[in-house]
Amino acid sequence: MSVGAGVGSQDRRRTGMDGESARVSGTSPRAPSFICVSRLPFLAALLGVLLLAAACEETPPLVAPDLCASVACPGGQTCVEGRCLATTCPGVACGAGQVCEQDACVELACLGVTCQPGERCRQGTCGRVGCGAGVSCFPTERCVSSACVYDTCMGVRCPQSTVCRPGGVCRSVSCTGGFDCEPDERCGEDGRCVPASGCAAVRCPSQQVCRDGMCAARACTTAADCGAGETCRAGTCLSNEDACASVPACPSGQVCRAGACQEVTCGVERPCQGLEGCRSGRCEGPVRGEARGVAPGAAVLPSGAGSVGAGLGGGPMKGPTHTLYPGLP
Q: Whole-angstrom Cα distance, residue 160 to residue 213?
């Protein structure tokens, strides 16, 4: 027998044995490998169709929920992400698109952002914000050295002839022609810086009211003689913020202090207030002449007829034929 014939017989026997094994196990003989390879183009085409169908399928865009849809905020507030935030800081209205956070007007993108001293937040980023030449700061800021800074003087009202400086401190600042004053100030008649806003930033002593940035005691007979935000009480114009503005006329020998009628002694270096006169060592209400609109002109009343002592209300007023002593009946 030849070697080639022997090998062929062995292959046939092996094939027969494989077929027999397949019949015994109940399975079909394995298909030739070329059949699987012939299916690859079909499967690739099917996969391409499926991918194309998925790409063409319309996917709805993601929409963030409206957290303010069912929120109704009171006046002076606006809804931001479901929360009602104030659109005004104490005494100051913020600009469009701004809300009040920690007493400062900020953009919505700057909520929760903390900046270093000298920096302000704009569009969510901290940095130096220039100002001047038509570029304004936010309502709660002021322009200092051509840069916007937080206004520490916001809501601060200073006594007459003083202005607020950084830190909320009231100071007397001398000036010449306004060059030494801040942009929101002017040089007053007494050579000192005063707020350009007039009386908005001026705090007057009790029983005095502000006119054009200057405090003075003003007599009245009715409320029409007083200005806006004032009332006529016992012949004197008082600010509505004055504690004595709502107190009725006090009994003879008493005057109003801190919202209550009481006896107040007066004399040298113990002057009375406003248009009050000093009678027999006690402060009395406005004298009759002042109640008719005659305002005093100086600070100290002389002693004389009618037991008029030292007081804040003015000296004798001389006319063409007589002299009026404040405090005389």
A: 7
Q: What is the pLDDT of residues 121-155, one digit of tens each?
A: 999 999 999 988 788 899 999 888 889 999 888 88
Structure tokens at 218: 């003003």
Give the span between the Cα atoms of 253 and 60, in whole angstroms: 83
Tell me if 91 is assigned to some domain.
yes
Domain-embedded: residue 105: yes
Domain extent for 115: 77-129
- Asked if the structure places residue 56 within a domain, the reply is no
CB of 245 within 8 A of CB of 238? yes
User: Which pTM does this prediction carry?
Assistant: 0.49
Q: Which two tokens stand for residue 78?
A: 């606006």
Across the strands, what pairs with 286?
276
Instruction: Return the DSSP state at 42.
Output: H
CA–CA distance, 20 with 24 (Å, rounded to integer): 6
Number of domains forming the structure of the chain: 1
